[in-house]
Specification:
Layout: H1 3-9, H2 16-19, H3 22-31, H4 41-46, H5 48-67, H6 82-96, E1 104-108, H7 114-123, E2 126-131, H8 134-146, E3 153-157, E4 170-176, H9 185-195, E5 196-209, H10 218-231, H11 239-248, E6 251-258, H12 271-274, H13 280-285, H14 287-302, H15 310-330, E7 333-343
Parallel strand pairs: 1-2, 1-4, 2-3, 4-5
Antiparallel strand pairs: 5-7, 6-7
Helix pairs in contact: 3-5, 6-7, 9-11, 10-15, 14-15
């Protein structure tokens, strides 16, 4: 086995040192949502960095296994494949930002770099991703090298609430379902504003509760809570609150809309979570795949093959998937609120 193959094979769940921490990590993470253990919205905001790192340490391998390298949703046309819809959503950002070769672009919360690589190939722009999770940074660098895109894509460790870069450095910036993790959305957008050149554009897709969400409806509140638990969110903002945060940070909002409303009724944005049979990966994403995975992981954990806590992680992600489906069906939640803003 080559060095590259060995690095690829060694995941969080197969690395002996890391797998020994799965149980304690997921226990600490769940504590942020347990009021009896001091959890709650304020605790999640105060300790957001620890919470998000705990979360991505234990879910990244699950995400890549079931979703691929682009951890986001997208509007989908009838007959369009899931992968094609993701690429189209990514390329749309590149078009709206007018990206081209020679531009230096910030990917805010880059994950393992799937969108970064797609947008760099499409536009020719140089993209730098910021990520505060060491495990994901290891993966994004490896994937960039394997894709032959190290000359166009890079990643550095940093907190998007306090970016370790100079003022007015970037020609453009984007985020894809990332700043929903911010404890203070205005603060996160203000940092992006600081590092952009005057007149530069910032675009993104944001997780939001829609106007159909009723805070007094207990069913709506339960859906929102399960999404927050399963996706490491301090709180989910409304669409008006997101626009207000951009403006308070100093941006002029040029365009905004729920990009997922354009999905064909036969292929809603949450369809991959319900389940598709067009491919093995499609089966893994859906309800049947999650059910099989939970049972398999539970059996492997019981005999000591899978690390302690693996079943709990799988169950948490399963509940989150059902909440996302419910939120989408009820129209009270969107993970694809698009915005385009200019730095004043």
């Amino acid at each position: 086995m080559s060095g590259t193959q060995a690095a690829r094979a060694k995941t969080f769940y197969t690395d002996d040192e890391k797998r020994s921490r799965i149980g304690s990590t997921i226990s600490e993470y769940m504590g942020f949502f347990d009021e009896k253990r001091g959890g709650g919205v304020e605790a999640r905001k105060a300790q957001y960095s620890t919470m998000i790192n705990d979360y991505y340490d234990v879910v990244t391998d699950f995400y890549e296994h079931g979703w691929g390298p682009s951890f986001h949703f997208a509007a989908r046309a009838r007959g369009e494949s899931f992968d094609a819809s993701l690429a189209r959503a990514e390329h749309y950002l590149g078009l709206r930002l007018n990206l081209r070769p020679g531009m230096r672009v910030l990917d805010v919360g880059c994950g393992v770099g799937g969108p970064m690589r797609s947008i760099a190939r499409f536009s020719g722009a140089f993209i730098e991703g910021v990520n505060n999770n060491d495990y994901q940074l290891q993966k994004v660098r490896q994937h960039n090298e394997e894709a032959g895109l190290s000359q166009l894509c890079s990643a550095f460790k940093g907190d998007f609430m306090n970016l370790p870069v100079a003022d007015e450095l970037y020609d453009a910036a984007y985020e894809i379902e990332a700043t929903c993790h911010a404890p203070d959305k205005t603060g996160a957008f203000r940092e992006v504003h600081r590092v952009l050149k005057p007149g530069a554009l910032f675009a993104g897709y944001e997780w939001c509760m829609t106007d159909a969400f009723d805070p007094a409806d207990t069913a709506h509140q339960e859906i929102k809570r399960e999404i927050e638990i399963g996706d490491s969110l301090p709180d989910i903002a409304s669409i008006p609150a997101t626009i207000k945060a951009l403006e308070a940070a100093g941006f002029e909002v040029l365009d905004s809309f729920d990009a997922l409303r354009s999905s064909d009724p036969e292929t809603p944005w949450y369809l991959p979570l319900v389940g598709e049979t067009s491919s093995l990966l499609g089966l893994r994403r859906g309800r049947l795949g999650r059910r099989i995975a939970r049972r398999t992981i539970g059996a492997l954990e019981a005999v000591g093959i899978a690390p302690e806590g693996s079943k709990q992680v799988s169950a948490m992600l399963g509940r989150a998937a059902e909440a996302l489906i419910a939120g989408g069906e009820a129209g009270i939640f969107t993970p694809g609120f698009f915005f385009l803003a200019r730095r004043r």
